[in-house]
C-alpha cells in the first residue's frame, strides 16, 4: 500500500550523547569532544525510526516512490554510512557481478555506504555562523551587560553557591553555564550520580536555557533550497538530513513561532532530537505543496506535529518561503556584511548543491566546495557526524546532509552552552 502525499522530507537532528567539553563564553571557541557509544545508540535508534516513518511502504508517511532497499544517492542526500538497522540496513542486494561472472557482496552482509559532507566555515557559514563574527561577539558582550542578564545572574547566585561542590573548580557565574558538565557527569559518573542532590540538574538546565533566547538566520537557507529542490519534479532529491547541535532547534522554534504556540519547545532539546519537515501534496481542489512540521524530543519521545506562524494545520510551502526567505542569510558575503567581518574566503551562496542537470556545471563543480566525510554508519552515526571536525576526510560522493561540530551553532546570534 502506498501513500503518495509525502513528496520529501528535510530532517534536522541533534547529536547524541558525547564527551564533556569546554567552550569559551565570549567567542564560543571549544575543546575537542567525541561521540560516546551511548550517543551512537541514540542516533542509531533515531535512524531506525526515520526508516520506519519514511521508507516503509506500509507507513502513512512513506515518501512516494523513494527507493527503500538500496540507497539512491540522488534521492537520499544523507552523508552518512547506512548500517546496522539504520536508515538503509545491510542487504544482499548490495552485490555486483564482475566481468568474469564473479559476484561480490559488500562486507557485513551487504553494508551500505552513504558519503558524508562536513561544512567548513571557510566555505560555508551556515552551520558555524558565530565563528570569527565580530557582531556576534559584540552581541554576546551586550547580552552579558544587559539588565536582564544581571538580574538573572543575581537570582542564580544561590544555585551557583549550592552547586560549588559539584563542578570541581569550574567558574560559577552565569556566563559559564555548567549544565553540560553536570549532565555529562550525571550520565557517566556513578559516584557523581549518587551524590547529586535532587533538582540541581533541573536548575542547571534552566539557567542554560536562559542563555539560548535569541534566534539566528543561517540554517534557513539550506532548508529553503532543499524544499525547493524536492518540489521540483526534475530534481530527484527526496530526503535530506541536517545534523547539528541544539542551538538550531531553539533558533528555528523562535523564528517560526513554534515556541510561541507551544511553550514546551522552549529550551534545550534532548540528545538525538529531530525536527522533520515534510513536504506534502495537498488534495484537490487545493493540490498545492504544504509543509508539516513534526518534532521528537530525544530517544524516549515520539514524533508529534507542531505548527509554525500561528497555523493550526499544514502551512503552504509558498507562504513559508515568503515568511522566512528575507530573514535567511544565504552566502558568506551576506554573512560578512551582517557580522561586520573584514574578509571572507568564499562569497558563493550556501544553497544545497544542485544536481549537474540543474546547475549545468557538472558533478565536479556541483560538489567541489565540501569536504566529504569518510564513510560512517548511516543514521547510526548521526552522533559522530555531529562531531564533524573529528571525521576522517575524503572527497568521495555526492552529498546533501550538512553536519557541524558539537561546538558550533547555526544561529547568527545567541549565547552559550555546548
What fraction, in percent, of the residue positions are helical? 25-40%
H/E series: EHEEEHEHHHHHHEHHEEEEHHHHEHEE
Under the CATH scheme, the architecture of the largest domain is 3-Layer(aba) Sandwich
Task: Work out the number of β strands.
Answer: 13
Q: Write down the overall mean pLDDT.
A: 75
Counted up, domains total 2
Structural class: alpha/beta
At CATH level 3, the topology of the largest domain is Rossmann fold
Q: What proportion strand?
A: 5-15%
N→C terminal distance:
43 Å
CA-based gyration radius: 22 Å
Low-confidence stretches: 79-85, 350-418
Protein name: Phosphoglycerate mutase-like protein
Please tell me about this protein's structure.
It comes from Russula earlei. This is Phosphoglycerate mutase-like protein. With 418 residues, the protein is of the alpha/beta class. It folds into two domains: 6-136 and 218-403, Rossmann fold (3-Layer(aba) Sandwich), CATH 3.40.50; 144-211, no CATH class. Helix content is 32%, strand content 13%. The protein contains 15 helices and 13 strands. It has helices spanning 37-54, 107-110, 134-145, 147-162, 179-188, 190-195, 200-211, 219-231, 247-255, 258-261, 317-324, 332-339, 356-359, 362-366, 382-385; strands at 6-14, 76-77, 95-97, 103-105, 116-118, 239-244, 274-281, 289-296, 304-306, 315-316, 371-373, 393-394, 402-403. Strands 1, 2, 5, 6, 7, 8, 9, 10, 11, 12 and 13 form an eleven-stranded mixed sheet that branches. A hairpin with a 7-residue loop joins strand 8 and strand 9 (304-306). Helix 5 runs antiparallel to helix 7 (200-211). The longest helix is centred in the first third of the chain and has 18 residues, at 37-54. The protein is globular and about 70 Å long. The termini are far apart.
Amino acid at each position: 500500500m502506498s501513500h503518495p502525499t509525502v513528496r520529501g522530507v528535510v530532517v534536522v537532528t541533534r547529536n547524541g550523547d558525547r564527551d564533556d567539553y569546554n567552550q569559551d563564553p565570549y567567542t564560543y571557541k571549544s575543546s575537542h569532544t567525541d561521540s560516546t557509544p551511548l550517543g551512537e545508540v541514540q542516533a542509531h535508534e533515531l535512524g531506525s525510526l526515520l526508516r520506519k516513518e519514511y521508507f516503509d511502504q506500509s507507513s502513512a508517511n512513506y515518501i512516494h516512490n523513494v527507493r527503500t532497499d538500496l540507497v539512491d544517492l540522488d534521492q537520499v542526500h544523507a552523508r552518512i554510512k547506512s548500517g546496522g538497522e539504520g536508515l538503509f540496513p545491510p542487504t544482499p542486494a548490495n552485490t555486483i557481478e564482475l566481468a568474469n561472472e564473479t559476484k561480490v557482496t559488500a562486507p557485513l552482509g551487504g553494508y551500505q555506504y552513504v558519503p558524508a559532507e562536513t561544512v567548513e566555515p571557510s566555505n560555508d557559514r551556515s552551520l558555524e555562523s558565530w565563528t570569527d563574527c565580530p557582531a556576534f561577539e559584540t552581541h554576546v558582550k551586550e547580552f552579558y551587560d544587559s539588565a536582564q542578564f544581571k538580574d538573572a545572574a543575581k537570582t542564580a547566585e544561590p544555585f551557583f553557591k549550592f552547586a560549588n561542590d559539584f563542578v570541581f573548580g569550574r567558574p560559577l557565574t552565569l556566563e559559564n553555564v555548567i549544565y553540560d558538565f553536570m549532565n555529562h557527569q550525571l550520565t557517566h559518573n556513578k559516584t557523581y550520580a549518587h551524590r547529586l542532590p535532587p533538582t540541581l540538574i533541573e536548575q542547571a538546565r534552566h539557567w542554560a536555557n536562559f542563555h539560548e533566547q535569541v534566534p539566528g538566520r543561517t540554517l534557513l537557507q539550506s532548508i529553503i533550497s532543499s524544499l525547493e529542490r524536492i518540489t521540483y519534479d526534475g530534481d530527484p532529491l527526496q530526503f535530506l538530513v541536517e545534523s547539528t547541535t541544539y542551538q538550531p532547534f531553539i533558533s528555528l522554534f523562535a523564528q517560526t513561532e513554534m515556541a510561541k504556540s507551544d511553550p514546551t519547545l522552549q529550551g534545550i532539546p534532548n540528545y538525538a532530537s529531530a525536527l522533520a519537515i515534510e513536504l506534502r501534496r495537498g488534495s484537490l481542489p487545493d493540490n498545492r505543496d504544504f509543509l508539516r512540521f513534526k518534532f521528537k524530543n530525544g530517544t524516549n519521545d515520539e514524533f508529534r506535529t507542531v505548527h509554525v506562524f500561528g497555523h493550526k494545520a499544514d502551512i503552504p510551502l509558498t507562504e513559508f518561503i515568503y515568511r522566512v526567505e528575507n530573514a535567511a542569510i544565504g552566502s558568506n558575503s551576506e554573512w560578512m556584511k551582517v557580522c561586520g567581518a573584514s574578509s571572507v574566503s568564499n562569497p558563493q551562496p550556501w544553497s544545497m548543491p544542485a544536481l549537474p542537470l540543474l546547475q549545468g556545471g557538472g558533478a565536479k563543480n556541483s560538489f567541489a566546495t565540501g569536504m566529504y566525510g569518510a564513510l560512517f554508519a548511516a543514521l547510526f552515526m548521526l552522533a559522530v557526524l555531529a562531531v564533524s571536525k573529528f571525521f576522517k576526510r575524503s572527497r568521495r560522493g555526492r552529498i546533501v546532509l550538512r553536519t557541524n561540530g558539537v561546538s558550533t551553532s547555526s544561529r547568527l546570534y545567541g549565547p552559550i552552552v555546548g
